[in-house]
Q: What sequence folds into this?
């Protein structure tokens, strides 16, 4: 057993969104979801056996209830010694760039290797999903689908990254941590939004539609279903009580500019998660026009560009003597 391992994982962004959990244990999503894994954003996590549990995130020690609950769930099934985990990302955390997806995918992959469990991809996806719903999708690369199969909620790769090499342009409009995290926000929507049932039903249809669009490389169809899923999720958030409102003025302006580019013939569509950042998905031919347009929006702080990436992977290193 190596005792120490380092894993990397990339965040993913959902084109068909997940927002809402089934009541009960296991962090089971209420809906399937479909995503893209990004290559330019990376989380790297090293896990090693230590004298006490320690968790360091981007250079600072953290005590995070989500991580504690995750370790507790793992410890109910595996014999786990005290662990030190050190995790760093090359992008800001907690502001709608899916750092928890890459974070839990890298953590479970590093633990699996450090502790010699030999989990297969489905089992790692299932465990990552228990840490954070969307993290199950960062175990796979390219286009990922998280849905129920044979009673298990695991991700599978619908299409590899190089099979349809779309580009993602991210407009960062704020680096503030979100006021309401996804777990509390989802529960609020389930309990209070009058639209919750319609959301769950229509997401099943969007999921089937998006799967077909990806398999047929039908950009127009994927653009329609992805924007619709995003806007329906935000309508659900806005109709929760108290309302969940994650956008700022620059977010809205970016959406208008992306639609204007599309009206002028560019292959591009937007999506926004639980935060104010805008992700524009486009074909390589239109990447520079999209980047230029987002850079000109007042309030856009930085624009990142990414291709599609691989699933979580591990490099094992021996523990220091
Ligand atoms: O993985 P969580 O619990 O942070 O939820 C992710 C929720 C969204 O990013 C808004 C949508 C999604 O499917 O990723």
A:
């Amino acid at each position: 057993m190596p005792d120490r391992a380092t894993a990397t994982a990339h965040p993913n962004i959902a084109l068909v969104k997940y927002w809402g959990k089934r009541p009960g244990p296991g962090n089971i999503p209420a809906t399937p979801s479909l995503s893209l894994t990004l290559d330019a954003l990376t989380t790297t996590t090293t896990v090693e056996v230590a004298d006490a549990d320690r968790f360091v995130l981007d250079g600072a020690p953290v005590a995070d209830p989500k991580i504690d609950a995750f370790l507790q769930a793992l410890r109910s099934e595996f014999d786990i010694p005290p662990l030190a985990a050190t995790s760093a990302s090359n992008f800001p955390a907690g502001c709608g760039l899916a750092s928890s997806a890459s974070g839990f995918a890298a953590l479970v992959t590093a633990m699996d290797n450090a502790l010699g469990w030999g989990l297969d991809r489905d089992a790692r996806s299932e465990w990552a999903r228990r840490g954070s719903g969307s993290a199950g999708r960062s175990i796979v690369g390219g286009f990922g689908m998280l849905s129920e199969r044979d009673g298990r909620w695991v991700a599978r790769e619908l299409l590899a990254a190089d099979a349809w090499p779309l580009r993602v342009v991210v407009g960062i409009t704020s680096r503030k941590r979100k006021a309401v995290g996804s777990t509390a926000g989802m529960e609020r929507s389930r309990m209070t939004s009058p639209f919750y049932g319609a959301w769950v039903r229509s997401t099943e249809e969007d999921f089937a539609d998006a799967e077909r669009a990806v398999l047929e490389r039908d950009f127009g169809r994927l653009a329609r279903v992805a924007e619709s899923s995003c806007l329906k999720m935000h309508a659900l958030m806005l109709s929760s009580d108290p309302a969940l409102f994650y956008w700022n003025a620059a977010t809205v302006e970016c959406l208008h500019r992306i639609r204007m580019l599309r009206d002028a013939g560019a292959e591009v569509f937007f999506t926004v998660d639980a935060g104010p950042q805008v992700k524009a998905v486009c074909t390589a031919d239109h990447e520079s026009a999209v980047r230029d347009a987002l850079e000109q929006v007042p309030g856009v702080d930085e624009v990142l560009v990414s291709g599609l990436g691989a699933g979580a992977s591990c490099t094992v290193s021996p523990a220091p003597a």
